[in-house]
Amino acid sequence: MTTQTSTATAKRPTAQIYFPASVKNAGGNARPQSTSQTGSKALEPFEATILEHQALKERDDFELIDLTLAGEKAAFEILVKRYSGSMYALAYRMLHDPDDAADICQDVFLKAYEALESFRKKSSFYTWLYRIGTNSCINHIRKNQAQHHIEFASYHAFKEADTLETLYKTELQEVVNDAIERLPEKQKATVMLRVCEGMSHREVSHILKCSVGTAKANYFHAIRNLRRFMKNYIAANEDDADVIPSSLLRIGNVAPPSMSLGMF
């Protein structure tokens, strides 16, 4: 059955983010409906006028969430536009595939929309969204572990002191790539969030749903494992020995390719 809207539904464009059609409840307010109830045929793009966007842009996240739950579809469009770039960048850095990153980005916002009523505002929407995104990437990696390979185009080395040194050696880069690829999913995610996103241990703990102590432990073990995985290279290249053992390699420094969102 085709859902009726006030405007004609256009053919789905490439990289369009789609969400479930709003369903009127008994009180007349629109509510997000899960795909298990609507099915894929009920998915339709959000449509918002320029005036609606301009009026909503100044709202904070919590206000936009309340408006979405009250049936204001344009409010969630603002949240998508506000965080789609960050979500796509996170997915690209973890998967290093633009198509997979775009798929994950769509999936993250769809999951967030469907679960919006369960968001209790105990953390920021940003943190809640990053949790969904990180878990989606981890699950994707697990499903594709045999074929998955991350290539990191460039990186920076952070010494434990205040000195920032940049490494551009192709051979070393390959060693680093292989070492990071061997990290367990949670350690890899922790390094991504700490180094690429600049998050604190507390923020990482919220996203990965673990204690601050566990987040710190994951980070510690990740760095220790990276040093262990690279010890043979370090032993064979004494010139780099003073840099690598005390360094945390910055992952995915190059900006991901842009993703076009058809609704904006």
What report would you give on this structure?
Belongs to the sigma-70 factor family. ECF subfamily. This is Sigma-70 family RNA polymerase sigma factor. Residues 79-145 form the RNA polymerase sigma-70 region domain. Keywords: Sigma factor, Transcription, Transcription regulation. One of its GO terms (molecular function) is DNA binding. The protein is mainly α and 264 residues long. The protein has 2 domains: 19-143, RNA polymerase sigma factor, region 2, helix turn helix motif (Rna Polymerase Sigma Factor, Chain: A); 157-249, Arc Repressor Mutant, subunit A (Orthogonal Bundle), CATH 1.10.10. Helices cover 51% and strands 6% of the residues. The protein is built from 11 helices and 7 strands. The chain has helices at 35-38, 50-56, 61-69, 73-95, 98-114, 125-143, 170-181, 185-196, 201-208, 212-229, 231-236, and strands at residues 19-20, 23-24, 30-31, 43-44, 157-159, 164-165, 247-249. The strands form 3 sheets. Strands 6-5-7 form a 3-stranded antiparallel β-sheet, with no helix packed on it. Strands 1-4 form a two-stranded antiparallel sheet. The protein has a two-stranded antiparallel sheet with strand order 2-3. Helix 4 runs antiparallel to helix 5 and helix 4 crosses helix 6 (125-143). The radius of gyration is 21 Å and the shape is elongated. Mean pLDDT is 68; it is low at 1-45, 146-169, 241-256 and 260-264.
